[in-house]
Write a structure and sequence with these properties.
By secondary structure, the protein is α+β, with helices and mostly antiparallel strands. It folds into two domains: about 210 residues, Triger factor/SurA peptide-binding fold; about 110 residues, Roll (Chitinase A, domain 3). The chain is about 50% helix and about 10% strand. The chain has eleven helices and ten strands. The strands form three sheets. Strands 1-3-2-10 form a four-stranded antiparallel beta sheet. Strands 6-5-8-7 form a four-stranded antiparallel beta sheet, with helices on both faces. The chain has a two-stranded antiparallel ribbon with strand order 4-9. A hairpin with a 2-residue loop joins β2 and β3. The radius of gyration is 28 Å and the shape is extended.
């Protein structure tokens, strides 16, 4: 099992860990005075085997979710309030799950080291054709801290080791099962024709403010862009290096890679560009092609004919994916069994209650009385 951990490790782990901010840690609570961390009674949301989860911890995790929702809902506070109860219960349920998992991991004396996390992150970076530094930059651009991701990775790896210890003998995907999946999902292994193209994009410059007629100004800008593209095309046909011209002139982010757009199938580009690219022969350069983005010079650099991945080629990946599916199912059942066995106590009046299901923020606030199934454990033990 340890060789088949995915980028997110396991679905259950990603749900549990993502809901618990680094600073929102549950506090141990003792029934005896002056022992353990003191927590105000009205701040306790639940205790799990004697460990308290506080309202302040839930609020810390809930705040960014509500802020994001408020932004998307364009300030509709009624809608935010409808979701608040559901989000709160999801966060509390995730914190309960994490406490129980950490308890089991500790009992099993399982440790995930920095080296384990570094190895997994390096594996991810390699698979994405990136260096660790590039991976860090990508995470930062998405508002994620690398060290926090590393800590989450360690938690996921530790849980993976726990699942391996508990259920290794139950994960037995046979070649026959893999072949049955392949037969039923044959279309997933069919690869359509793909081409690899590079391009130079020339966008019309901003319209001339000295030209009163907007349409005339737009036409002049387009004419200038087309003229520049035609000049560059003449240079290409005269033997100039395509990649160099792309780096120096293209308005597309691909300019940094000499205009390379990698392999794409049909449906990936706007129609005029796609038609021109797929009609070229490898090594051939198009005439100037106009799209809504501007004027393109396209060079076809490679082509892949339609093909089908054979069962033997896909077998290992299919087996791994089927195992991961089983892992996820076992993980959910395992976490629910831990909750059933645990002593989870909610203060009076704070027991989880089914909430009305809010509609999408794109629609009017929900007025229905329909009640969904509870999202978490509702029994006080």
């Amino acid at each position: 099992m340890k060789n088949h951990l995915t980028t997110t490790i396991l679905l259950a782990v990603s749900i549990v860990v993502s809901l618990l901010p680094a600073k929102a840690r549950p506090n141990p609570v003792s029934a005896e005075p002056n022992i353990g961390v003191k927590t105000a009674a009205d701040d306790i949301a639940a205790t799990v085997n004697g460990v308290a989860i506080t309202e302040s911890q839930i609020e810390a995790a809930l705040k960014p979710q509500l802020e994001k929702l408020a932004s998307r809902a364009k300030g509709d506070q009624n809608l935010v309030n409808q979701y608040k109860g559901m989000f709160r219960q999801q966060i509390l349920d995730g914190m309960i799950s994490q406490l129980l998992l950490e308890e089991k991991i500790k009992q099993a004396k399982i440790v995930a080291t920095d080296e384990d996390a570094d190895a997994k992150l390096q594996e991810i970076a390699t698979r994405e054709n990136k260096t660790i530094e590039e991976l860090k930059a990508m995470l930062k651009a998405r508002g994620l801290r690398f060290e926090e991701i590393k800590e989450r990775m360690k938690k996921g790896i530790a849980f993976g080791k726990l699942m391996e210890k508990e259920f290794a003998d139950q994960l037995n995907v046979t070649e026959e099962q893999a072949r049955e999946y392949y037969t039923k999902n044959k279309s997933r292994f069919e690869k359509p024709e793909q081409v690899r193209a590079s391009h130079i994009l020339i966008k019309p410059e901003k319209t001339d403010p000295n030209v009163a007629d907007p349409n005339e100004a737009k036409a002049k800008a387009k004419a200038a862009a087309k003229a520049k593209a035609e000049t560059l095309l003449k240079q290409v046909k005269a033997g100039a290096d395509f990649a160099t011209l792309a780096k120096d002139n293209s308005a597309c982010p691909s300019a940094q890679k000499g205009g390379d757009l990698d392999f794409r199938g049909r449906g990936s580009w706007v129609p005029p560009f796609e038609e021109a690219a797929f009609n070229l022969k490898v090594g051939q350069v198009s005439d100037v092609v106009e799209t809504r983005f501007g004027y393109h010079i396209i060079k076809l650099t490679d082509r892949r004919q339609p093909s089908t991945t054979t069962f033997e080629q896909a077998k290992d990946d299919i087996i791994n994916n089927l195992k991961q599916t089983e892992q996820q199912q076992l993980a959910r059942k395992y976490i629910e069994s831990l909750k059933t066995e645990a002593k989870i106590v909610y203060p009076p009046g704070k027991e989880p209650k089914p909430a009305k299901s809010p509609l999408s923020f794109r629609k009017a606030p929900a007025r229905s009385g329909k009640t969904p199934k509870p999202t978490g454990k509702t029994t006080t033990k």
